Amino acid sequence: MDVPHSPFRVFVVEDDVSDARILAQLLREDGYDVEVAFDGASAVSRLAQAPTPDVLIVDYKLPHVDGLAIASFARSRDAAVEVVVVTGYPDIVERVAVQAGGPLRAVLTKPLIYADLTAQLECARAARAVAKT
To answer: Does residue 49 lie within any of the structural domains?
Structure first.
């Protein structure tokens, strides 16, 4: 995979610490600027205090705050943030997301296929580049 020209900021929110660390390491090796939170409350706190990432990769079921609420909060700070939800409950997430009115970049099913995620990240990068022009 080509290294991004400028840092593309990715925020991973996943309560499985091992999965989150492995995913973050893979993304860093591919040239992404990655931050990680392990629960919903930490994610909201980070989003409230720092610049919004380009992409939010978030699990749906999290302690304290669910992934769609985190996505909604991130979008309240930057409407252009791209959201990828990773879940074992894709049908529920898609239905709830539609009801909440928030479009998602993708809903990916666990276990996550890394190539599917990186394809979505490249689409998100292209969309963000278009939005900035």
So the answer is: yes
CB atoms within 10 A of CB 122: 14
C-alpha 17/C-alpha 116 separation (Å) is 21
Decide if 3 is inside a domain.
no
pLDDT tens digits, one per residue of 85-132? 999 999 889 888 866 556 889 999 999 999 999 999 999 999 888 877
Closest CA to 55 of 105, 108, 14, 5: 105
8-state DSSP, 50: S
Do 94 and 107 touch, CB atoms closer than 8 A? yes
110 burial (CB, 10 Å; 0-12 / 13-18 / 19+) is middle
Q: Are 74 and 81 in contact (CB under 8 A)?
A: yes
Query: 69 lies in a domain?
Result: yes
